[in-house]
Design brief:
The structure holds two protein chains of two kinds.
Chain A lengths: L1 H28 L2 H52 L13 H48 L3 E6 L4 E4 L1 H7 L3 H4 L4 H4 L5 H13 L3 E10 L2 E13 L5 E10 L1 H36 L6 H33 L6 E5 H19 L2 E4 L7 E5 H17 L6 E9 L4 E8 L6 H4 L22 H12 L3 E7 L3 E9 L1 H8 L1
Parallel strand pairs in A: 7-9
Antiparallel strand pairs in A: 1-2, 1-5, 3-4, 4-5, 6-8, 9-10, 10-12, 11-12
Helix pairs in contact in A: 1-2, 8-9, 9-13, 10-11, 11-13
Chain B lengths: L4 E5 L3 H13 L3 E5 L2 H11 L3 E5 L7 H10 L8 E5 L7 H6 L2 E6 L4 H18 L1
Parallel strand pairs in B: 1-2, 1-3, 3-4, 4-5
Classes of the chains: A alpha+beta, B alpha/beta.
Chain lengths: 489, 128
């Protein structure tokens, strides 16, 4: 840098001198051109010189600034090395190598401590993240539960609630957190708040209640378990409520109770006739032979009725539980219908009812249990004759639909018909059309058995069309044997 | 002495037949109906001394028949025996409110029914 600066200075000086000499000579020799040249060179020289000094000045200035910036640190280091650490009595000047080494060691140990703290902070941060993730996972689990979950604190303010709880009690958790629970849950659902408070104030571990609410315009029953939350001092600091929807279970329970009640009633009724007649016969209350015959006949018929009822109940139970033995094979519907018509003929003749059978169809084989289909057909024919007045008619038809691959059997009567509001229940267990009870007796299980056999066992379809005072058409559809065989393959 | 009149109401014809024979054999006049509506009309016309009715009947149940009888001035004091094949169908409270003299479960004994009828009629005479 120094050599270059000097070279610049020498060259600049020579140029300047040349300029001066040339100018003097030009002036003396009166040569204008030479004069011009001299001046041009001079001008260039001056400009160049100026630029050079400017650059030099800037370089010097920047170096000076850098030195100025490092000076305090250098001073500090220098003063530290010179004076040493203050130790209970002010700074003392130590210049030994050993002290400097100890300082350096202390710096290193402090650096290690700082490093340790940094590592601990990192560990804590990782633990915090893990805890947050666990909390998020726990909350996700609770939020995804189908059961409603509500957590309140010691002041009955909402701490946490999942989506199911929000839907049940119609509040949004995000905007409802820390609000008093009785502000959020009111009306017919306020009994839940009462149970919550009772449990907390009673300080028992947990209580269980069945609560009925209206949700989506239907009544629902919930199994509500409320558990107290305890702090370190075993004081109640909140409560957790879990509400599980048991409406379906209650309905099933009620259906079972109703079924038992129905069965009990249906069994007791013929039994009552049998016992009454038996007692009368045993006590000699039947004076004449005619009365005795009547009583014997009642006992016999009611015993058969009882037997049929028990058989129907058992069959329905077996079908519903899947325990029934099924023997499916290709069977002709026409042949089964013929057999059952023979059985119903005498009953129909007694009532003066005409039975009309269709001309048999050649290709009407279905893949079915013969005994079960026979039961279906006899039930339909028996009902048709039972509920048709004297002089009426019962017609049985078979049809095959090759497009859908099904065979259809219909039994049409000119009987009493079924009111529109009762058609939907006609296949229910123990259901009997009340208006037709005087027309004929029955267990109320026959059509339910038909439905179970056709739909559950054979995957077919039952249907009914009826008009009060005109008559009814009951029918069923089954897949053709060919269709079943193709599906089996 | 005039025969006591008993109205027997049941949709099971065999029950009506057996009970009728039993009561007639023991000096009672028996009228019968197979549904609640017919039974109420007969009760108003014939004014029986006792009504024996089944609980489960089409159209109008035995309980509804009793309620209707209690609302009518003519028939409100007629004693009623309720026959039922269902357990716990009527509470003690209901029995008292509707003034049902006795509930008998099916299957029942015709002798037991007769004893109940005689007991009710005896108490009716004593209270008069």
């Amino acid at each position: 840098m120094k050599l270059r600066t000097n070279s610049y200075a020498i060259v600049t000086a020579i140029v300047a001198c040349s300029l001066l000499v040339a100018g003097l000579m030009a002036w003396r020799s009166r040569h204008g051109a030479l004069c011009m040249f001299a001046y041009c060179v001079g001008a260039v020289g001056v400009i160049w010189l100026g630029w050079f000094w400017l650059k030099l000045a800037r370089a010097i200035t920047s170096i000076d600034r850098a030195l100025q910036a490092e000076l305090p640190e250098l001073d500090a280091r220098s003063s530290m090395l010179d004076s040493g650490f203050p130790q209970g009595g002010g700074p003392r000047r130590v210049s030994s190598i050993r002290y400097r080494e100890s300082v350096i060691n202390r710096i290193e140990s402090y650096s290690k401590l700082v490093e340790q703290f940094r590592n601990q902070i990192k560990d804590l941060q990782i633990q915090v993240k893990l805890s947050q993730r666990q909390k998020a996972n726990t909350e996700a689990i609770i939020y995804s539960l189908c059961d409603a979950v509500i957590v309140v604190d010691e002041s009955d303010r909402l701490l946490m609630a999942n989506q199911a709880a929000g839907k049940l009690f119609h509040f949004d958790f995000k905007s409802s957190q820390h609000k008093p629970i009785d502000e959020l849950i009111a009306g017919d659902k306020s009994k839940f708040v009462d149970f919550l408070r009772q449990t907390k104030y009673s300080q028992v571990e947990a209580t269980r209640h069945e609560i009925e609410f209206t949700q989506d315009e239907s009544s629902k029953i919930f199994d509500c378990i409320i558990s107290c939350v305890y702090d370190d001092r075993q004081q109640v600091c909140g409560a957790v409520a879990v509400l599980h929807d048991i409406t379906r279970e209650k309905q099933i329970q009620q259906a079972k109770t109703d079924f038992v009640s129905h069965v009990s009633h249906e069994l007791k009724t013929p039994l009552a006739s049998i016992m009454a007649c038996s007692e009368m016969l045993a006590d000699g209350e039947a004076d004449d032979e005619e009365t005795k015959k009547q009583f014997y006949s009642v006992i016999q018929n009611q015993a058969k009725r009882l037997s049929r009822l028990i058989e129907d109940i058992l069959n329905i139970s077996r079908i519903e539980s899947g325990l029934i033995k099924i023997e499916k094979q290709p069977v002709s519907l026409t042949i089964i219908i013929e057999e059952q018509l023979q059985m119903i003929k005498s009953y129909a003749q007694e009532k003066g009812i005409e039975i009309i059978a269709q001309t048999p169809i050649v290709y009407d084989q279905v893949y079915a249990d013969k005994d079960m289909i026979s039961q279906v057909i006899i039930n339909l024919l028996s009902n048709a004759v039972k509920y048709t007045r004297c002089g009426g008619s019962v017609k049985i038809d078979t049809a095959v639909n090759e497009t859908t691959g099904t065979a259809q059997v219909t039994v049409t009567d000119t009987g009493v018909g079924i009111p529109k509001n009762e058609i939907g229940h006609i296949f229910d267990k123990f259901y009997r059309v009340s208006a037709n009870n005087n027309q004929a007796k029955g267990t109320g299980l026959g059509l339910n058995l038909v439905k179970q056999i056709i739909e559950k066992v054979h995957h077919g379809r039952v249907f009914v069309i009826s008009e009060p005072g005109v008559g009814s058409t009951f029918g069923f559809e089954l897949p053709l044997a060919a269709t079943e065989a193709v599906e089996a393959v | 002495m005039a025969e006591k009149k008993v109205l027997v109401v049941d949709d099971e014809i065999h029950i009506v037949h057996v009970v009728a024979i039993k009561l007639r054999n023991n000096g009672y006049e028996v009228i019968s109906a197979d549904n609640g509506i017919q039974a109420f009309e007969l009760a108003c016309e014939e004014m029986p001394d006792v009504i024996v009715t089944d609980f489960q009947m089409p159209g109008m149940t035995g309980l509804q028949l009793v309620e209707k009888l209690r609302q009518c001035e003519q028939t409100r004091d007629i004693p009623v025996i309720l026959l039922t094949a269902r357990n716990f169908v009527i509470s003690q409270q209901q029995q008292k409110e509707l003034q049902i003299s006795q509930c008998l479960s099916k299957p029942f004994s015709p002798k037991e029914l007769l004893a109940n009828i005689e007991d009710i009629l005896y108490r009716k005479v004593v209270n008069q």
